[in-house]
Design brief:
Layout lengths: L11 H30 L5 H24 L1
């Protein structure tokens, strides 16, 4: 008895949603992984500035709004 119904692969709207979600996830993950390099090379920010001014507030907002959204 499979965990996911194999028939979902034949459901075209479902597959379009999965593909769109994958593309969006890949784009966001790529953007998030490239921001520190861009800040270092383009804007000449130090590693401490990148972590404390760019990455930390974004991480905190994800935690806070994720919690609020889950309530």
């Amino acid at each position: 008895d499979p965990f996911v119904d194999p028939g979902l692969g034949k459901n075209i709207p479902f597959m379009i949603g999965v593909l769109c979600g994958g593309i969006i996830f890949g784009t966001v993950a790529g953007f998030v992984s490239m921001v520190p390099y861009m800040m270092k090379d383009v804007h000449q920010l130090s590693t401490a500035e990148i972590g404390s001014v760019i990455i930390f507030p974004g991480t905190m907002s994800v935690i806070i709004f994720g919690y609020i959204g889950g309530i």
